[in-house]
Amino acid sequence: MKLLLASSSPYRQQLLKQLRIDFDSASPDIDETPLPGENPTSYVQRLAANKAAALASDYPQHWIIGSDQTCVLNGSICGKPGSVDQAEAQLMAASGQRVEFLTGLCLRAPDGRQWSLVEPFAVQFRPLTPALVKRYVALEQPLNCAGSFKVEGLGISLFEALEGRDFNSLIGLPLIGLRELLAQADVELLQLAH
């Protein structure tokens, strides 16, 4: 079974390596702009499926894993900040708030069948000061991370509590969900591991 991770994210690649399975990775080229009126759940589910589909013709023998994550603050989609100023603004808006993260996951078979889910995870931010936020952003540079933090690094210092079934979903690849999708496709994860 050939697996392809439809992502250039080193964080997602590292998570998948933990499962001790062989896989290739490639970056899909898709438009990540939310559709007018699209809710956050539909948004991440659509992007995960689009990422997997975008690479299907280039990798016709592969099972493709697509994943996408968004941060939802006060009901609105918050994308990757892209700049220091935007990262600082996102973190200040999250100060003292409960923020939901949604990760869309899609497994696409070589024959075009696909299985998908959306994994929620909530983060309770502690009250943050502008000085603390500036220091965090300067140290971690989380400019390509939904929510403007890296939970696998110093991001944990920004939180009071975490709530969800799979901590890995905060990094962008819910491994429990992936095991479930493989099982739905009649593939046992432990049979792939070496």
Summarize this structure briefly.
By secondary structure, this protein is α/β, with parallel strands linked by helices. The protein contains six helices and seven strands.
Strand elements, count: 7
**Major sheet summary line:** 7 strands, mixed
Secondary-structure content class: alpha/beta
CATH topology: Maf protein
SSE arrangement, N to C: EHEHEEHEEHEHH
Domains (count): 1
Into which percentage range does the β-strand content fall? 25-35%
CATH class: Alpha Beta
Count up the helices. 6
Tell the overall outline.
Answer: globular
Mean model confidence by pLDDT: 94
Identify the CATH architecture: Alpha-Beta Complex
Assign a percent range to the helix content.
25-40%
Which value, in Å, is the CA radius of gyration? 17 Å
| N→C terminal distance | 13 Å
Low-confidence stretches: none
